[in-house]
Amino acid sequence: MARDTNLLSLGLEDRDRLNKELGGGIPRGSIVLIEGDYGAGKSAISQRFSYGLVQEGASVTLLSTELTVRGFIDQMHSLEYDMVKPLLKEELLFLHADFDSGGAFSDDDGERKELLKRLMNAEAMWRSDVIFLDTFDAIFRNDPTFEALVRKNEERQAALEIISFFREIISQGKIVVLTVDPSAVDDDAIGPFRSIADVFLELEMVEVGTDIRRQINVKRFAGMGQQVGDTIGFSVRSGTGIVIESRTVA
């Protein structure tokens, strides 16, 4: 069967079934929202996406608010996703948003940086086929301009300005992936992103007996290839990476 050229494959089909479960890949020109509480697996899914995309020939930028380059390499290595070669070959651009101990993104003289504006003006990070912002709510919460709008109850206006920028990026056929912890940001701020996301994946942890299981709830998937499952069970295993769990009947 011919591959849909509008989809960027998530690859690794010999290792897991994630690409198949998601219909063969992510449509070009999409905003992807991955939402989930702390520990639900947002970063692990982003890392699996980014590794598979690079293996399939896509260029990727991954901005992390949590991991340093060393931490990123170590974590990817623990999941058997070797990112050293893609980093050296510049197939993957990894960036660390370095918040200080107080949670602020500051320069050498202590002045709060206009983080969102700086990101939008960082041309190099938007050259890739796929751009991950993990976690996007941390960038939101630590930007002084956004904070000022929050104090005026104008979160929605700030969100719409950022969305306008993202729409310009995806009009070039690129994909922007945002991970968000919904417990860390107001619904008024995240609501517009939920509304405009072409692909909206909600990660959750579910208690099954004494076990905690993770699952991806596919809330929206515009431009899907083959059929996409509504719910995809998965686990994160050291030395293996993401494992798609077989469906079980309760």
TrEMBL record:
Q: Which GO terms describe its molecular function?
A: ATP binding
Domain named AAA+ ATPase is located at 28-203
Q: Which residues form a coiled coil?
A: none
Listed InterPro entries? AAA+_ATPase (IPR003593), KaiC-like_dom (IPR014774), P-loop_NTPase (IPR027417)
* A Pfam family annotated for this UniProt entry: ATPase
Q: Does the keyword Lyase apply?
A: no
Q: What are the entry keywords? A: ATP-binding, Cell projection, Cilium, Flagellum, Nucleotide-binding
What name does this protein carry? Answer: Flagellar protein FlaH
